[in-house]
Amino acid sequence: MLSKVWYSLNGLSSKKPLKYILYISAVIIFFALILIPPIIGILSKVDSLDAVLNDPIMVDAVLGAIGASFAIGLVVAALDLLAGVPLAWLITRGKSKWLTVLDTLADLPFVVPTAALGYSLLLFWSLSPAELFGQPFVSPGWGLVMLLHFTFSFPVVVRVIVGALLDYKMEYERASRTLGAPPLTASRTVTFPIIKPSLIAAYTLAFARSLSETGATFIVAAGLFLNGPVFIQTVSNQFSSGAISQNTYEGAIVFASLILIVVSLILFILIRVLGKKIKLPFGHGLPTFEKKLSYKKGAYVRDSIALAVFFVIVLVPSLFVALPAFQAIITGSTFVEVFTGSGIWASFWSSLGLSYALAAIVTVLGILFGLPMAILISRKTFGQLPSAILDTLINVPIIVPSIALGVSLKFFWSNLSGVPEFLLLIFAHLAITYPYFVRSMSAAMERISIEMEEASKTLGAKPLTVFRSIVWPITKYSILSGAIIVFTRSVSETGATLAVASKLKTAPVLIVDWVNSVRATIPTIPGVDTLTVGLACGLLILFSFIILLVLRLLTKKGKV
Amino acid sequence: MPDVRVVNVVKKYGKVYALNNVSLNIHDQEYFSLLGPSGCGKTTLLRLIAGLIDPDGGEIYIGDCRVDKAPPEDRDIGFVFQTFALFPHMTAWSNVLYGPKVKNYDTKQAETIGHEVLELVKLSERLNAYPNELSGGMMQRIAVARALAAGAKTLLLDEPLGQLDAKVRNDIRYEIRRMAKDLKLTAIHVTHDQAEAMSISDRIAVMKKGKIIQVGTPKELYMHPNSIFVAFFIGESNLLEGHITKSDDKIAEMELREGYTIEAFNQKKLKMGDRAVLAIRPETCAMRQGLINENRNGLFGVVEKTTFEGTIVRYDIRLVNGDRFLINRPSLTEEWVSIGQEVTITYPLEKAHLFPYPENGLNDEISV
Question: CATH top-level class for B4-230?
Answer without folding.
Answer: alpha beta
